[in-house]
Automatic annotation (TrEMBL):
TM stretches of this protein: 54-78, 107-123, 174-196, 208-230, 250-274, 335-355, 376-398, 410-428, 472-501
Species, as recorded: Nestor notabilis (Kea)
Record's protein name: Sulfate anion transporter 1
UniProt cross-references to Pfam families, sorted A to Z: STAS, Sulfate_transp
GO molecular function, one term: secondary active sulfate transmembrane transporter activity
Amino acid sequence: VLMERKTRVKINRKQVMLANLRKSCSCTPEKLKNFLMDFLPVLQWLPKYKCKEYIWGDVMSGLVIGIILVPQAIAYSLLAGLKPIYSLYTSFFANIIYFLMGTSRHVSVGIFSLISLMVGQVVDRELLLAGFDLNDDASPALGDGSLQNDTQSNTTAFNLTIAGMNAECGKECYAIGIATALTFVAGVYQVLMGIFRLGFVSMYLSEAVLDGFATGASLTILTAQVKYLIGIKIPRSQGQGMLVITWINVFRNISHANICDVITSAICIVVLVTAKELGDRYKHKLKFPLPTELVVIVVATLVSHYGKLNEVYASSVSGAIPTGFIPPKVPPFNLMLRVAIDALPLAIVSFVFTVSLSEMCAKKYAYSIRANQEMFAVGFCNIIPSFFHSFATSAALAKTLVKTSTGCQTQVSGVISAMVVLLVLLFLAPLFYSLQKCVLACIIIVSLRGALRKFRDVPARYHVNKADTFVWIVTMSASALISTEIGLLVGIGFSLLCIIVRTQRPRTALLGQIQDTNFYEDDLEYENLSSVPKVKIFRFEAPLYYANKNYFLKSLYRLTNLDPNLEVARRKKYEKKEKRHLKKGDHTTANGLGIGETTLQLVPKQTDFQALVVDCSSILFLDTTGVNTLKEILKDYKDLNISVLLACCNPSVIDSLKRGGYFGKDFGSMQEMLFYSIHNAVQFAKDQK
């Protein structure tokens, strides 16, 4: 049976593009309204807000997230290498902007540990290149954010051009300048990706790559916090091998550990871990999570203040956190070129985490999001706050889960969280002056529990899929031992390499017939399959292209126990010997046999089939090499009087074969070479003489 293909209507692509361009460039009031509604989704859902039904859940979840956000923001400033005030700015502006532009009702956007780490690594590198000392315990810079030469905090000053004016910039000013430039460029990348619809880039970050990256980065974060836990002063390592170098420095200086910090850290970790475990065990009974971090910070601040831990025991503290807002400034353009490459992985990771969490929430609560709009939302969550001394943001898994579990209904909860942060910014920030840095380090480390627990899932992951396990291990190791950015690239590269290897050496099989049916399966995998007399059925479970052509041929020859090239060569060799003997008038061959007996021996014993059926159901596509390979086996087997039949080809494979001339110029022999089922091909082969 040869099915008739539908006639495709030819599309004039030039006319279509011009029509789309005219449509895009036209401006009408209706179109402008739709654009605004799409660009600011809050205009669509806020007028439909069901106040009585939603307000209680939004207020409760907003308050809880705000209470969690404040201590985490202060803590994550250590990761970013910046002052706590900038983390609070970041948390405030991100929540407001995502409220206006986001399409997810539940995701919590703000400061995130992995993003803070990536920002911090760039900040530290640039500070080091500019000649600044990375010692955390240098006297704090001016809290008003003015661009003065801060000789107390650092002896090095750096000329920074802002708004066309040259000014000398101290360490803190230069650090936040790097962070805002990096954030601005990352946001621009995300907006451009949204404009050109490049969201598909996230498809190359598989779950194994993301999990491995998160776990490797978590090990780096943990390592960076150890010096705060035990109160030692070691240089902040930079570049490749940071994790190993930091641990070497920790063990070299462990004898100088601050006993006060060690005891405080031990108590805080025990309290935080115990509270988290109890919260996980009884979460179905609790209406909202316990604000353990806030309680620990308040108690630790009071103990540090009244116990004078900084003065008596030299325990490192957070220092002065100014209130109010620093006047906005344009991110320094002369630093943007320095961080342009670093901003690209930051933009991709930020977007991927946000979209994946948004899709998870949308699927759970049965609504839809727009991935492209999420790209714009995250992009502007970076671009706009960069003018207000903020750094890069992303959706955070832990806070999103808390948000959904506390009754969140819409992004109104984000506004409530922003108000809590604003309260701290305006009035409460100075109260955290005496807060020990080791307490903040404890909060960061305990927040990594989820990522570090991935190590327990390795056996189960290995049982499900070995290749994904190796991708996870390679990505995690590269992210931890080399650097986070290189680890991400290594993970993507290794993941793609695994896919290529799988298609290079796919499963191949000879099929047997399931008794009393028209179906065929792998002879090595199933019992009680019957072989088809005089017919070999070969299955290749991958696309056939240039990289696996040789494997295809080797597998075919091995499973059928016949290499047509060798067999043809062997026959030609015998024919030459026969001609030589006949010329001499000898009627016996070189083997001492008669001519009739030799003719029989020329037919090899292993040629026990007269037709080869190739099951193409798993061949997704053919390239030029693939088409030529099939033409090659067609010719080689034809020389041995063995017909080659193709079965279960999809339309794209058939089109490739037609264009490659497999069926001849007029496709006249197509009905005798192509079949829509294996059984049809087998029946045709049996009917052949």
